[in-house]
Each structure stands twice: as structure tokens, then as C-alpha cells.
Amino acid sequence: MTNLKILFTVVATLAVFTFVANVIPQVQSAVPREIVLSADMPPEELAAIGEEIYAGAGGCTACHGLGTRAPDLLGVVGGVCATRVPGQNCKDYLWESLVNPTAYIVEGFDPIMIDQSIVSSQAELW
């Protein structure tokens, strides 16, 4: 009789866990669409693609945002990044910071960012 009680308890517990696991909404992950950029794209379309990467696959919003703990994006990023390294333009500075995050560590921040070339395609980064 004791073995039967144990068996019933185990089966009932498994049934409850199975039910709960099936009630919880499942996260669906779609295959990311390939981004194709061209020189003749209008700025609005480029901005929309950039926003999609920033808010989606890039995972940037986990740390960056307006008034957040990571470097704040509320100000003019282009004005700051162009002055970080003498002789280097903003685009090259940002590129280097994305693919080699420990190249330039701003005082007061820890080197916690991952190499974005691991999680993003060349087109998404450039």
C-alpha cells in the first residue's frame, strides 16, 4: 500500500508540473531576417533598421537607453564619440567599441560589454 501511495504522489506531481508547463506561454523565436543595406537607402529606412536592431536582436536595450546605467544615449552620441580618440572619426570609434569592447574603457565604467560580432552580423554592425 505504501508503494502505491508513493507511485500516486509521483504521478500526481508529474501531472501538475506537466499541466503548469503547458499553461505557461511559450517564447517563440523567429529566424531573424537578413538585413540588406544599400547606398541609395533613404535615411528614414536606415533609421528604422537601426532601431529594429537596437531594440531587438542586438540586445542593446538591456543596458543602454535614455537615462540608464550604461552610457546614456540621451545626449548627442556623435559629438562625444568623435572626440574620444584623436584622429579617429565617430563611425570607426563606434565600430571598434562594438567588435573590441575593451579597446576603449570610459572612466567610471566596467568592461562588461560583449563582442557584438558574436551576436550580430557584419551588416547589422556596419
Write a brief structural summary.
The protein contains five helices and no strands. The mean pLDDT is 80. It has a domain at 43-125.
Secondary structure elements and their pairing?
Blueprint: H1 2-23, H2 43-55, H3 77-81, H4 90-99, H5 122-125
Which tags fit this structure?
single chain, 126 residues, mainly alpha
Model description:
By secondary structure, this protein is mainly α. It has a domain at 43-125. 43% of the residues lie in helices and 0% in strands. It contains 5 helices and no strands. The chain has helices at residues 2-23, 43-55, 77-81, 90-99, 122-125. It is elongated and about 80 Å long. It starts with a helix and ends with a helix.
Total helix count? 5
Largest sheet: none
- As a percent range, the share of strand residues is under 5%
| Alpha carbon gyration radius | 23 Å
What is the residue-averaged pLDDT? 80
Structural class of the secondary structure composition? mainly alpha
The first-to-last residue Cα distance is 69 Å
Give helix and strand order, one letter per element, not per position. HHHHH
Shape: elongated
Give the assembly state of these chains.
Answer: single chain
The total strand number stands at 0
What ranges have pLDDT less than 50 throughout 5 or more consecutive residues?
none
Summarize the amount of helix as a percent range: 40-55%
